[in-house]
From TrEMBL:
Pfam families: Glucodextran_C
Gene3D superfamilies recorded: 2.60.40.1190
InterPro entries referenced in this protein's UniProt entry, alphabetically: Glucodextran_C (IPR019248)
Protein name: Glucodextranase-like protein
Domain Glucodextranase-like C-terminal, first and last residues per copy: 36-257
Alphabetically ordered keywords of this record: Membrane, Transmembrane, Transmembrane helix
Record field: transmembrane: 289-308
Length: 312
């Protein structure tokens, strides 16, 4: 009877071992990324220069902070980059393609020689420091992803057909998905070259498919569909931006104050990732054999213990 119990226990261990051999490599491959950049932003600061308020329509009211970007994290694998934009609350009142309707994300990357110091379109009503010259511009709504370089042909932003939700001009090399309150953007490395020692500006507006450059317009009084402020907004040049990622020690209120405010950039220093490997780095393919051997030793030890116990 004791021998029969040993056989049953041994069979269970063998089955468990085989399952682990299949699951472990798959799990490691699925998460074979390393973090090369992480930036946290203040919570609840989706108020532009400090006094912007949401439109009065019910889709904007009593839903929390709908445009509050709280963090941006860049992951790197052998073949692609993944950027996770973490929001306070992503809602989808209009049934968007990617599961969020309200934020408009713009990402400007300076990661190569040359580039442009001007906005691709002027809808955000901001400006850049002379030291920041972007080479890649990624624009994201809940319906599409658009990718530009400084030489890209500009769309006619007054043409309603080009602004429609059904003709997005989406870049098929970039993929987008929403996981809870995170927007996750994936792109092959060939699309943007490298993030190493690059500069980045990230800003968030309120998406309006019929607004100038897709940005929701501003008002000096309470409005059903416009962003408004009880403090007088300049007739021209006021930023249509609700949230930005600012460097540590900077104040968003001060950065976005005035007409065509100059945005600071973030430094993407990838060197820190080399000296601080995560558990994912230790589980890369080169270590899978070692993990399998270790697991085999554990199984063997368990078997010997059981055998010794029942033979005693």
């Amino acid at each position: 009877m004791a021998l029969e119990d040993i056989k049953i226990k041994w069979q269970k261990i063998i089955i468990l071992f085989i399952i682990c051999l299949f699951i472990l490599p798959a799990a490691v491959r699925a998460e074979d990324y390393r973090v090369i950049f992480n930036h946290l932003d203040a919570a609840g600061d989706d108020y532009g220069p400090g006094d912007y308020q949401y439109p009065q329509n019910h889709i904007f009211q009593n839903k929390g902070h709908l445009f509050d970007l709280q963090a941006a994290t860049i992951f790197e694998s052998e073949s692609e980059y993944k950027i996770r934009f973490s929001f306070s609350n992503l809602t989808d009142p209009w049934g968007a393609e990617y599961g969020f309707s309200l934020p408009l994300l713009e990402i400007y990357l300076d990661n190569d020689q040359g580039g442009s110091n001007q906005l691709f379109h002027s809808g955000a009503n901001v400006s850049f420091n002379p030291d920041f010259k972007w080479n890649k511009f990624i624009k994201i709504s809940g319906w599409w992803i658009r990718v530009f370089n400084p030489n890209s042909q500009k769309e006619n932003i007054l043409n309603i057909n080009e602004l429609s939700l059904n003709e997005p001009g989406t870049n098929n090399n970039f993929t987008l998905n929403k996981v809870e309150n995170d927007i996750i953007l994936r792109m092959p490395k060939s699309e943007i070259n490298s993030f190493q020692n690059s500069k980045m500006i990230v800003l968030v507006g309120s998406f309006d498919p019929f607004g100038y450059d897709h940005f929701r317009s501003l008002s000096n009084s309470k409005s059903y569909w416009q962003i408004y402020s009880e403090i007088e907004i300049p007739a021209a040049g006021a930023p249509r931006v609700l949230d930005i990622l600012v460097p540590g020690g900077s104040s968003q209120r001060k950065v976005l104050a005035g007409k065509l405010p100059e945005l600071p950039h973030l430094e993407v220093d990838t060197d820190f990732a080399e000296s601080e490997p995560t558990i994912i780095d230790y589980l890369k393919p080169i270590n899978r054999i070692s993990l399998s051997i270790l697991f085999s030793y554990i199984v063997l030890i368990i078997f010997v213990i059981y055998k010794f116990k029942y033979n005693k």
